[in-house]
Protein: Isochorismatase
Organism: Pseudomonas fildesensis
Amino acid sequence: MEPLDTNATLLIIDMQQGMNHTKLGRRNNPDAELQMQSLLGAWRQSQRPVIHVRHISRSPDSVFWPGQPGCEFQPALQPLGHEHVVEKNVPDAFTATGLERWLHVRSIRQLVIVGVITNNSVEATARSGGNLGFDVIVVADACYTFDQTDLAGRVWPAEDVHALSLSNLAMDYARVIETAEILTAGCKDLCALSASAT
């Protein structure tokens, strides 16, 4: 893997307390949050930009309806005061949020995407980012999803939904890699941080 840009931006999608609600069902990748925390720590130490995306639902029965605890960021992934927060109402973080302009003003062209849900907001945002000309990297083990019922009523395991979503992205929209590759081969400063943490 080539070194990351010095201003490569970590985009953390929808890591809100509502993602832990039982009504969302069974998920895959139980260590995803640990991978996200590892990347977030490395980004902060290397002083690269971090963006936190928060979903604000338009549906009153959603775990992300405004004013509910589900809207709040998970404690381990809380934004710092200087980190940019984007609020969205649809899966795609680029839609009606000003995100594209924010990135262009800062000459940012490389996005490293983590978060949830792999086949929904992560995929939608990565597709838009790729279509808009950004160099998009999706970190496979720092994302997760839930079991999905298709239109015929068949239940697909979260592991399969996750794998197919990432495969779709890898065709045309993004590079799909693992956390370890970012930390050990992405760039010198992140590699040094990874080595000092072990």
Residues 9-197 form a domain with the Rossmann fold fold (CATH 3.40.50.850). The CA atoms of residues 109 and 133 lie 8 Å apart. The chain is about 35% helix and 20% strand.
